[in-house]
Design a protein that fits this description.
This is Polyisoprenoid-binding protein. The chain is mostly beta strands. It has a single domain, classed as Lipid/polyisoprenoid-binding, YceI-like (Lipocalin). Helix content is 6%, strand content 55%. It is elongated, with a radius of gyration of 18 Å. The two termini are 22 Å apart.
Length: 185
Amino acid sequence: MAFQQSYSELTGRYSLDPAHTRIGFVTRHAMVTKVRGSFNEFTGTAVLDGQDPSRSSVELVIRADSIDTRNADRDAHLRSNDFLQMEDYPEITFRSTEVTRSGEETLDMTGDLTIKGTTRQVTVPFTFEGRATDPFGNVRVGFEGSTTINRNDFGVNWNAALETGGVLVGEKVVLEFEVSLIKQD
């Protein structure tokens, strides 16, 4: 299904389906491998305007303590003051400020990402993955996207030097979004 032909059918209000959405991240560890993780608790809403994508908007709230890298010790360290400082900053948020069509099946979503009380503008290119009505009568749409941020820009600065040179944790973090939205109206 081509994005251009079907996007006009998407107009409406949507809620994020956490059971079918993944919000993940990837960063370098010890300069030789990658660590992948995700956030397991989040809420989000979207308003899509099929005639004028610039009138579309998204809000996302992520619970910082839901971080999951499949390693309890590492997750506890990531929740600590060294990284996310979740007791003082329990949420990571994204609020779109601009949505533009960037291709036949793609949108660029620019917005304010707030981590640890620091807000920076980021752009996430999204690909439209399709529209379907599920067996329960819900209209669902899917989008996938990713963007790279520098964690130091958000005050997430902890690191440790390695004997062989380099650092334990990479500064660049790829944020990954596999999104399933359910139409509400």
